[in-house]
TrEMBL record:
Superkingdom of the source species: Eukaryota
EC number: 3.1.4.12
Protein name according to UniProt: Sphingomyelin phosphodiesterase
Cell location: Secreted
Catalytic class of the enzyme: hydrolase
Catalysed conversion reaction: a sphingomyelin + H2O = phosphocholine + an N-acylsphing-4-enine + H(+)
Lineage, opening ranks: Eukaryota, Metazoa, Ecdysozoa, Arthropoda, Hexapoda
Positions bound to Zn(2+) 1: D194, H196, D309, H494
Pfam family, one: Metallophos
Length: 652
């Protein structure tokens, strides 16, 4: 039936000029990039983006009949196809940047400043990849960009290079546990992550602006608000599927404008807070200082795990100098406050690179392309803490390993390689496989000598920010070495959460612990944690989280924030221990006889943020819980099981 309607639409399209399919869309993008648009072309492209904006923010914009793809995928692939054609026609980076900036500005997708910054930062990488990589299909770029947590079919890319498996060594039949640790003292580690320092943060500045991130000196208040949650039915009336393609009726743009106009209001938002802001603002320098100085008051710390993201979210105006400066500041401040006797083990976040999120293979040397500059500069900044071997692998993969106590090894894993926003994945997805092979070699060496391992990795396992094969193979690695890995610690989400890995038989095998964030960016309170570890197994005995309430802190800018212990994992959740089995039991308890623990988990998830916690209803609570059991992207069976149990419990 759908196909029939589509055919009718094609037949009718000579009468109704407002219909557009993907080939026409690509042609249109090409004209725009070549600066050959007529007036009505510009109107058409404005309409297309009027549609793209709300569609891209709606996860439900999936068309059910063939379950294949999504309208944002159509627009994205058409735009990338046009870009690819022009690169092959010989347009220079400068010409392409200028054309894209112009269209970006006239469409008001983001602010003018954002357009002018983000395009020239990314174009050299994109054109390099397009020129050198025959497999770099528009669909691969878009499939990664638009990947979401719920559905593998939003924009499937079917690029066989992304399908790989990792070789795992046979398990030694005799467990090598003979490293007799002479330590009878527990190990105390600080978990701290995601400082996101904005050196240009302005207290009382603009916290609600037209840009992606605010609170920086020189920003102006928001001029427009767009309603982005347009109901799916509005789209479905105007978009028709024909086989794998869509035909879009551009009158949809008018429908969306009418709905958006209705809610456009003048806004007068409160100014930015002194200690930070729950809105899209990074942290002032003094808020970072406060976190580190507060941690330094704990006198019994052995080691600090810092899990990445030093740099702000003003991703359109990052510079090498600014990144370098903040990277130095972060580590120097820790050294100063903690002293030279406390080891700091750092890990690279996706914001440390230039431009943000881009991690090139070490074979890439070109100016504006390579990531070697970052690895080399971090090897110098972190020199005090790292061994020569650690510096050598840091320079290659941004990853390293160090024995930090007899019997305990830390692996700092730069899993930003596998981040879906890393364009270099399209250049060579196997670089991330090589990194995982290195991880396996290091874990195997540790296993053979009976060491225990803590893994630090910025991006947590199983999230839609990592590509599918990586999450699946990583899950295999963790399972294979579950006797060696005593703990994993992550950052990146800024929320406070943990994840349980399951083995093939469905039994809980390992736990990855989120560290939260030292910034309030995107509506969280700041936090750090102190984990105590068993001196022999190096498994966590307890994890205690410390926070302050940002609203309260901002009411008294002249006083230091009032830090307090939010919870202690073991006692707050009444756990015997923090093993995978215990954490798994807790998850099932939370949706059956102990809903209070689910409430606690929801409160702790946002670190009792005034912005988020009061808005966390039952759906939010169960969504939070769902994330704990998804360590392979799209493997959501256990999540659905927990969801069903929860709704059964509350309906009784
Ligand atoms: Zn972050
Ligand atoms: Zn991050």
């Amino acid at each position: 039936m759908k196909v029939f309607i589509g055919l009718l639409l094609i037949l009718g399209s000579s009468f109704a000029s407002r219909l557009i399919n993907s080939d026409e869309l690509q042609e249109l993008f090409t004209k725009v990039l070549k600066n050959e648009t007529a007036d009505n072309d510009l109107k058409t492209i404005q309409d297309v983006f009027e549609i793209y904006r709300p569609a891209s923010s709606s996860l439900k914009m999936q068309f059910e009949s063939n379950g294949r793809t999504d309208v944002t995928c159509l627009i994205c692939t058409s735009a990338f196809a046009a870009l690819r054609d022009l690169v092959f026609e010989g347009q220079t980076d400068e010409m392409l940047s200028e054309a894209i900036i112009n269209i970006c500005i006239s469409l008001r997708i983001v602010s003018d400043r954002t357009c002018k910054g983000i395009v020239p930062l990314n174009i050299p990488i994109l054109t390099y990849i397009i020129k050198t990589t025959p497999e770099a299909a528009p669909r691969t770029f878009c499939g990664l960009l638009l990947q979401n947590a719920d559905n593998p079919n939003t924009c499937p890319y079917n690029d066989p290079r992304f399908e790989w498996t990792i070789d795992l060594p046979e398990e030694n039949p005799i467990q090598n546990d003979q490293i007799a640790t002479s330590n009878s003292e527990v190990l105390r580690a600080v978990l701290v992550t995601d400082a996101h320092i904005d050196p240009l943060y302005e207290p009382n500045g603009v916290a609600d602006c037209d840009e992606l991130t605010c609170c920086r000196k020189g920003q102006t208040p928001r001029s427009d608000t767009y309603k982005t949650d347009i109901p799916d039915s509005v789209f479905k009336k105007r978009i028709h599927e024909v086989k794998d393609d869509f035909i879009m009726d551009l009158d949809l743009a008018d429908d969306i404008r009418n709905l958006s106009n209705a809610i456009r209001t003048a806004r007068n938002s409160p100014r930015a807070g002194y200690w930070g802001d729950y809105r899209n603002c990074d942290s002032p320098l003094w808020a970072y200082d406060d976190v580190i100085e507060t941690i330094a008051k704990h006198k019994d710390i052995d080691v600090v795990y810092y899990i990445g993201d030093n740099i702000d979210h003003h991703v359109w105006e990052t510079t090498y100098e600014l990144i370098d400066g903040v990277n130095s500041y972060v580590i120097d401040k820790m050294k100063k406050e903690f002293g030279e006797n406390i080891l700091v083990v750092p890990c690279i976040g996706n914001h440390e690179s230039q431009p943000t999120n881009q991690f090139a293979p070490s074979t890439i040397k070109g100016d504006k392309l390579n990531t070697t500059w970052l690895y080399n500069s971090l090897a110098k900044k972190w020199d005090f803490y790292l061994t020569e071997d650690a510096k050598a692998t840091l320079k290659k993969y941004g990853s390293f390993t160090m024995l930090i106590r007899p019997g305990l090894r830390v692996i700092s894993l730069n899993n930003n390689y596998a981040y879906r926003y890393n364009w270099w994945l399209v250049y060579d997805p196997l670089e991330s496989k090589r990194l995982m092979e290195w991880l396996v070699r290091e874990l195997h060496k540790a296993e053979l000598v009976g060491e225990k391992v803590h893994i630090l990795a910025h991006i947590p396992p199983g999230v839609h920010n990592l590509y599918y094969t990586w999450t699946r193979e990583y899950n295999r690695v963790i399972n294979r070495f579950s006797k060696t890995i005593a703990g994993e610690f992550n950052g990146h989400t800024h929320s406070d959460e943990f994840k349980v890995f399951y083995n093939e038989a469905g039994a809980p095998a390992a736990v990855a612990w989120g560290a939260g964030s030292a910034t309030a960016y995107s509506g969280y309170n700041c936090n750090y944690k102190i984990a105590t570890f068993d001196p022999n197994t190096y498994e966590p005995r307890n994890i205690v989280n410390y926070v302050y309430n940002l609203t309260e802190a901002n009411l008294a800018p002249n006083r230091r924030p009032h830090w307090f212990q939010l919870y202690d994992m073991k006692n707050s959740f009444q756990l015997d221990d923090l093993s995978a089995a215990s954490m798994n039991n807790l998850l099932y308890r939370m949706v059956t006889e102990d809903l209070l623990s689910l409430d606690l988990y929801a409160a702790f998830y946002s670190k009792i943020s005034d912005r988020r916690w009061p808005n966390c209803n039952n759906y939010c609570k169960i969504d939070n819980l769902c994330k704990t059991v998804v360590t392979v992207l799209w493997h959501r069976e256990r999540c659905e099981e927990l969801r069903n149990l929860f709704f059964k419990t509350i309906s009784n």
